[in-house]
Design goal:
Blueprint lengths: L25 H16 E3 L5 E2 L5 E2 L1 E3 L2 H4 L2 H15 L6 E5 L4 H21 L14 E5 L12 E3 L6 E9 L3 H12 L3 E10 L4 H6 L5 E6 H9 L3
Parallel strand pairs: 5-6, 5-8, 8-9, 9-10
Antiparallel strand pairs: 1-4, 2-3, 6-7
Bound molecules: 1-O-pyrophosphono-5-O-phosphono-alpha-D-ribofuranose (PRP) and orotic acid.
Keywords: Glycosyltransferase, Magnesium, Pyrimidine biosynthesis, Transferase
Enzyme class: transferase
Organism: Kuenenia stuttgartiensis
């Protein structure tokens, strides 16, 4: 924790006029992100050709990286994830590399942009969304680094920090649970867990057994509906 820094959150608006002309509305951002996931990430085949991390096969696959690494989607992701944590006392956001990384980075970036707007509000500007301290991003490695500082967790987090664990997809929840366990081994306090997509295959239940709050931005059902109704 950085001492002496307090956060205030006054107004619930996401307004990126400082970086682009059209402000982002949360409902519109969600719709746009769903569309991006369908266009870039959702793959379907009549045969179960997609092999999953668990070893099972599936007839659909959500390659979230094609969306999470796309710059306009990053802005949407950062805004939507930040919206879910901005009222909480959170020091940092991260998860198991690689799925979690772009989500954590985008959210941290949006939190810093929010801080910049807060500074403007102090000089009487219209932006009154004030967060004095941005959220740090961190990365949990699958294996400890074998040289340098030999770290498992990279980023500016330390014992006692309040963190949010993220993942791009939750299927069995195994990857997210690995992140939860590693974070706890490092004495990080988990405030909640947020996934971009919940495949509704038992992951939520498995994660909740770790006594954490679990949320997702989208479910498999929503994605499949959107895929079927694709113009
Ligand atoms: O809920 P689970 O059954 O664990 O499956 C979901 C995980 O699978 C994918 O990661 P992957 O193992 O493909 O690794 P990568 O992100 O490093 O590519 C995805 O990013 C999730 O982390
Ligand atoms: O279970 C997985 O490994 C998995 C499923 C999916 O839809 N997308 C992904 O990246 N991983």
């Amino acid at each position: 924790m950085e001492d002496g820094l307090k956060r205030r959150s006054i107004q619930l608006t996401i307004n990126f006029e400082s970086v682009q002309n059209s402000p982002i509305n949360i409902d519109n951002a969600r719709k746009a992100l769903l569309q991006a996931l369908i266009e870039r990430s959702f793959k379907y085949d009549e045969r179960p050709v997609f092999k999953l991390t668990s070893g099972k096969t599936s007839n659909y696959y959500i390659n979230c990286k094609a969306t999470t690494l796309n710059p306009s989607s990053m802005l949407l992701i950062g805004s939507l994830f930040y919206e879910k944590i901005r009222h909480l006392d959170v020091d940092a956001i991260g998860g198991l590399t690689h799925g979690a990384d772009p989500i954590a980075f985008a959210t941290a970036m949006v939190s810093a942009m929010s801080e910049a707007r807060g500074q403007r509000s102090e000089v009487g500007d219209q932006w009154s969304d004030l967060r004095v301290k941005p959220v740090q991003a961190f990365v949990i490695r699958k294996e400890a680094k074998s040289h340098g500082l030999m770290k498992v967790i990279e980023g500016n987090v330390s014992e006692g920090d309040k963190v949010v664990i993220v993942d791009d997809v939750v299927t069995t929840g195994g990857s997210t649970i690995q992140a939860i366990d590693r974070a706890r081994e490092h004495k990080l306090e988990i405030v909640k867990v947020i996934a971009l997509v919940d495949r509704q295959e038992g992951g939520r239940e498995n994660i909740e057994k770790k006594m954490v709050i679990f949320e997702s931005l989208f479910t498999r059902d929503e994605l499949i509906d959107a895929y079927k109704n694709k113009p």
